[in-house]
Amino acid sequence: QVQLVESGGGLVQAGGSLRLSCAASETILSINVMGWYRQAPGKQRKLVALITRGGATNYADSVKGRFTISRDNAKNTLYLQMNNLKPEDTAVYYCSADLLRWGQGTQVTVSS
Prior knowledge:
Blueprint: E1 4-7, E2 10-13, E3 18-24, E4 33-39, E5 46-52, E6 57-59, E7 67-72, E8 77-82, E9 91-97, E10 101-102, E11 106-111
Parallel strand pairs: 2-11
Antiparallel strand pairs: 1-3, 3-8, 4-5, 4-9, 5-6, 7-8, 9-10, 9-11
């Protein structure tokens, strides 16, 4: 089964940018939907963005126009470019493969 490892999180000031990566242990060509989810302290995990094998994307309303999801099938990697970050974006970010496999998460903290 595919293993997922996120990276790229960190501490950034409001208005800044980060790019998250999710490296898969094997080809992602067979994965129908890959997604980014986030979980803030005391809250449920929520969808941030997803991308299908065909390249169709969907975003949570709160990140539309600021975040961009992409996948590089040749590198077996999923990305999340996050621009104009806000304090409310602070959370642990997880990547998922078809909602069956999850990474360990990467912390994103946005200071005001």
